[in-house]
Amino acid sequence: MAAVLLTVAYDGSLYSGWAPQANARTIAGELLGAVRAVDPGVREVRGTSRTDAGVHARCQIAAFDPTREITPRGWALALAAELPAEIAIRSVGTVADGFDPRRHAVRKRYRYLVLRDESRDPFHERRAWRTFHPLDLDLARAEAEALVGTHDFMAFRSVRDQRVDTVRTIESATWTTLQDTPQVLAFDIVGTAFLYNMVRIIAGTLVDVARGRLAPGAVARALASHERRDLGTTAPAHGLYLERIDLDVVPDDVWPL
Amino acid sequence: MAAVLLTVAYDGSLYSGWAPQANARTIAGELLGAVRAVDPGVREVRGTSRTDAGVHARCQIAAFDPTREITPRGWALALAAELPAEIAIRSVGTVADGFDPRRHAVRKRYRYLVLRDESRDPFHERRAWRTFHPLDLDLARAEAEALVGTHDFMAFRSVRDQRVDTVRTIESATWTTLQDTPQVLAFDIVGTAFLYNMVRIIAGTLVDVARGRLAPGAVARALASHERRDLGTTAPAHGLYLERIDLDVVPDDVWPL
Q: One digit per residue, pLDDT tens: chain B, 257 residues?
């Protein structure tokens, strides 16, 4: 039977990240629970990106192998009834049996939101990183430009990431001021793949340079030195959004049309 | 001693509205608790608009009479430490002893958010009214224009509103598509004062006309007939935001500058 491919959006504020854990509420754990409420034969839900605790997603992609014949629309309605309000199924399609979306991701887009505000804003609480420091956006943009291209990003990862190949390609890295909420800055980065904590280290470094806490040129220095200490703060998880994942396959029977 | 004037923002999702109630979590109840944690001599917090359960505010205005000498900045910091994340003090100033902001409100602005989406969106859950019906914005705009001016809005209120004078002045009523999130429509209405449920009845009626459920001209018919039945649905509370209140006085010593 064909595998089911889901696009999932979630507010990660109250969850311990994507990956299932014993004794913790996780996105994949809630999703598997909802799928198994409909089809108890399902053993696992395979995600594409293991987002950290507090990180949000507008389009995580996940797949599972059903044991019951249910249409994509049927899955969408059934899962909507089972899932908590913070997790939503945005689309459902079918792909080949056993499909593992991690092996088919060719491009990812992340967004990091920075709120410039002197006092708390309940509508951005846990959804943007608040700072009251003046930020020089030109400096942040110059650092962002230095990221674009194919580089060894060894410096740009958590010590928990032990992968050998640290060469990645960044296609674009831009800062914009949101039109409807000009107190919010959005940093958008598109690349083929990312190391662990890479986007949060980049966002924290660019904000550190923009507020004058780190000398301009930090990105270039770290690309040359491969030293994490040439970079800045790891920005907090709650400002990060997994915005989009491009796969090298197109699912069938997609709901909604 | 001068009264303290607060501008308060809140996500009303989890609260039973502004006005204090026994055995229910309310915004004014939380605020009074926070103020009394700092100054136990305070007896009441006087709000300007009694927002309903689920309604949000970006700038509710409230006042209280302190018994301790604390600067506006001192109040801001102390209350920030006491209040839950959904309630934030945006500014603090001082006004005349005994000041009642209800008597000094000369203009209010409300915003109603409509999300056009086929599936749930966790980032707008409880913060916008979701509909999957196609909406004709030209029809909604024509109804909105009919509201502008000084009219007897007797039809535009809940049966729980028993006030005798139902003449109000609407200065503007407009629909816009948000730039950053074009799936969200914002209805903005500015007036001198509003009847109970008036903005929610207006928003529901305009959406009913825009989706073809109610014949165009509903606003004009209800202004002439004074009959609630000529209007549409009362839109749900969770799409409504109290955006701004203009007072006829300017507070002193305002924090932040």
A: 999 999 999 999 999 999 999 899 999 999 999 999 999 999 999 999 999 999 999 999 999 999 999 999 999 999 999 999 999 999 999 999 999 999 999 999 999 999 999 899 999 999 999 999 999 999 999 999 999 999 999 999 998 888 889 999 999 999 999 999 999 999 999 999 999 999 999 999 999 999 999 999 999 999 999 999 999 999 999 999 999 999 999 999 999 97
Strand partners, B107: B246
Q: How far is A227 from chain B (nearest CA, A)?
A: 37
Q: Please say if B52 is a catalytic residue.
A: yes
- Sequence-separated (6 or more) residues with CB below 8 Å from residue B28: B18, B19, B20, B45, B47, B62
Nearest-Cα distance to chain B for A172, in Å, is: 19
The whole-model pTM stands at 0.94
Q: Which residues on chain A are in Cβ contact (under 8 Å) with B127?
A: 123
Name, in order, each residue with C-beta under 8 angstroms of A42's C-beta and a sequence gap of 6 or more.
Answer: A32, A35, A36, A64, A65, A66, A67
Dihedral Cα A29, A34, A36, A38, nearest 10 deg: -170
Residues with Cβ within 8 Å of A59's Cβ and at least 6 positions away in sequence, in order, are A7, A8, A9, A90, A242, A243, A244, A245
Return the CATH number of the domain spanning residue range A105-242: 3.30.70.660
Domain A3-99 has CATH 3.30.70.580: yes
User: What residues form DSSP beta bridges with B151?
Assistant: B168
* Contact residues on chain B for A86, CB-CB shorter than 8 A: 122, 125
Output Rg (C-alpha) for chain B, integer angstroms. Answer: 19
**Domain A105-242 in the same topology as domain A3-99:** yes
- What CATH fold (topology level) applies to the domain B106-242? Alpha-Beta Plaits (3.30.70)
Radius of gyration of chain A (CA): 19
Q: What are the structure tokens assigned to B87, written together?
A: 């309630």
Please report, for chain B, the start and end positions of each structural domain, with discontinuous segments joined by +.
3-99, 106-242
ipTM of predicted assembly, 2 dp:
0.90
